[in-house]
Design a protein that fits this description.
With 163 residues, the protein is of the alpha+beta class. It has a single domain (2-159), classed as Gcn5-related N-acetyltransferase (GNAT) (Aminopeptidase), CATH 3.40.630.30. It is built from 5 helices and 9 strands. Strands 4-5-7-9-8 form a 5-stranded mixed beta sheet. A 4-stranded antiparallel beta sheet has the order 1-2-3-6, sandwiched between helices. The model has no long low-confidence stretch (mean pLDDT 95).
Length: 163
């Protein structure tokens, strides 16, 4: 198994993993994923085994300290020099869950974000996942203003530097 950044040829598998991992109202469609992949491929971390994508994390970078719904749809909002690494999705194929794959991906994203000297990472999650992200040092900031997919989301921050 290895973690690597995505390439355009990964799009069909990314879309399939996304469809399997999120309810339809929350999952990014193939066209949205294609736009993200074109704008910031180095912000897609894939875990693969024998050429099969088992899971991935994706998200843009920005100077905005909160994740907004507009960011999910508009890849043009990405700013490569941005202070904050947003995380849009942490997704693993259902049959591959509970094996530490999401944790391995998260550890890689955090390490890369730290190496890039960004201020930190921001994500939103459902209440039942707050504890998972707290294990990595994320702090819950309360209910997010996000209306994405009609769910209630909690904003989580992991600050890496004070700058």
């Amino acid at each position: 198994m290895k973690i690597r950044h995505a390439i355009r040829e990964d799009l069909p598998e990314l879309a399939e993993v996304e469809r399997q991992g999120f309810p339809p109202a929350e999952a990014a469609g193939e066209s949205v994923l294609a736009g993200r992949l074109a704008a910031y491929p180095d912000h897609f971390w894939l875990l693969e085994d024998d050429g099969r994508v088992l899971g991935f994390i994706d998200g843009m970078t920005t100077d905005e300290p909160s994740l907004t719904d507009a960011m999910y749809e508009d890849a043009a909002l990405h700013k490569e020099s941005g202070a904050w690494q947003m995380i849009f999705g942490v997704v693993v194929r259902p049959e591959c869950r509970r094996r530490g794959y999401a944790s391995a991906l998260m550890e890689q994203v955090i390490a890369d974000t730290r190496a890039q000297r960004r201020r930190g990472l921001v994500l939103t999650c459902k209440e039942e996942l707050i504890g998972f992200y707290q294990r990595f040092g994320f702090i819950a900031r309360g209910v997010s203003a996000s209306l994405h997919g009609g769910a209630v989301w909690y904003e989580m921050h992991l600050t890496l530097t004070d700058e």
